[in-house]
Amino acid sequence: MTSPFGGTGGGAPGAPRLPTPPTGWPIGSYATYEEAQRAVDHLADGDFPVQEVTIVGVDLMLVERVTGKLSWGKVIGGGAASGAWFGLFVGVLLSLFSSPEGFVIGPILVGLATGVLFGILFAAATYASSRGRRDFVSASQLVAGRYDVLCQPRHAEKGRDILARLAMGPRHTSS
């Protein structure tokens, strides 16, 4: 698990505890994260000390991709669905703890109906308060213009050589 403050959640030795700029020399630059990840995997396969490597996204952009138009029908349907799930959850809990005989359907139906009603009300109020300023649904993603692979100076030359052989392809590896 990674932490937003650098390093792993378990406190890897040498990992910064606060956000810090990356250090090291560039040993490769790639157009996509997948290519940078493949390069580091190639280094790892070659017994390279990958704990000295950092992938850095450069020229960050927030990309918002519009996925559809928002309408009253979609707002009310989405509110009803999310309210139904929450109401069902509450209803099941009430059912389990309300009767000594065990599972009862009444609290589940009441929870479900109440959840749907409040889900619709809250979704409608939220949409109405926007007054048509945002009549679309979107998904946001943070992407980089390029991905640099950095390595600590003591291993940078060896890393560049390994990645150069990867870039040359399998037909040129005559070592």
TrEMBL record:
Keywords: Membrane, Transmembrane, Transmembrane helix. Residues 27-101 form the General stress protein 17M-like domain. InterPro entries: GSP17M-like_dom. This is General stress protein 17M-like domain-containing protein. Residues 1-13 have a biased composition (Gly residues). Residues 1-22 are annotated as: Disordered. The chain crosses the membrane at residues 75-97, 103-128. It comes from the Bacteria. It comes from Actinoalloteichus hymeniacidonis.
